[in-house]
Amino acid sequence: MKKTHEKQWYILRTVSGKENQVKYYIENEIQHLGIKENIGKVLVPVKKIIQIRNGKKIKKEKIYYPGYVLIETCLKSQVEQTLKNIPGVISFLSEKKGGHPIPMRKYEVNRMFGIVNELSERNASVSFIRGEKVKIIDGTFVGFSGTIEKIHEEKVSLSVLIFGRKTPLYLSLTQIEKII
User: Fold this and answer.
1) N or C, fewer C-beta in 10 Å, the chain?
2) 160 DSSP β-pair partners
């Protein structure tokens, strides 16, 4: 495989749970060794989720690909060795064990950034399906149960039985929860 001097995206395998620590170490090594021209972005893809605990909304970030860090770099031997020696790094993703790192293909990078951008814009990662029974946990109709009729991007249309009549309600995804 021929080496190029243009930056490409590579995947580093890391100890799961240490992704942000690896990113921090890489950024420090870039400054310390003066190899900024060889390394571009270092990315740990996350998705933003909203959890409801005791009736309060809590925003959290969850790592989308546990055990992996994406790095844009011009992979020279010094840079490769430096990255492999960072605490928490297992290896580069390659075709065979101990083989030369393989850069991500252009369509993989585009798909990855499409996913990352989509996840950063989304507020909640809760999946509901049409016909599912849910309980209203926030708003005027707290405690009522209903059936999902339609699912929109950030809202759902529910059919709720109020005073013996089916009534349509439009609520955000954070105002409902699945009935278990």
Assistant:
1) C
2) 146, 167
Distance from C-alpha of 158 to C-alpha of 26, rounded to nearest angstrom = 48
Which two structure tokens, joined as six digits, stand for 141? Answer: 């109709």
Helices (H), the chain: 19-33, 77-84, 106-121
Instruction: Tell me the C-alpha distance between 122 and 84, whole Å.
Output: 34
Q: pLDDT grade, residue 1 (50/70/90)?
A: very low
pLDDT 10s digits, 40-49: 889 898 877 7
Among candidates 10, 169, 170, which has minimal Cα distance to 89? Answer: 10
Burial of 24 (0-12, 13-18, 19+ CB in 10 A): middle
Q: How far apart are CA 21 and CA 32, in angstroms?
A: 16
pTM above 0.70? Answer: no
b/e sequence 114-144, b meaning 16+ C-beta within 10 Å = eebeebeeeebeeeeeeebebebbbeebeeb
Two tokens, residue 99: 């083989």
The first and second tokens of residue 144, run together, are 């009522």
Q: Which domains does the chain have, with CATH numbers?
A: 8-121 (3.30.70.940), 133-178 (2.30.30.30)
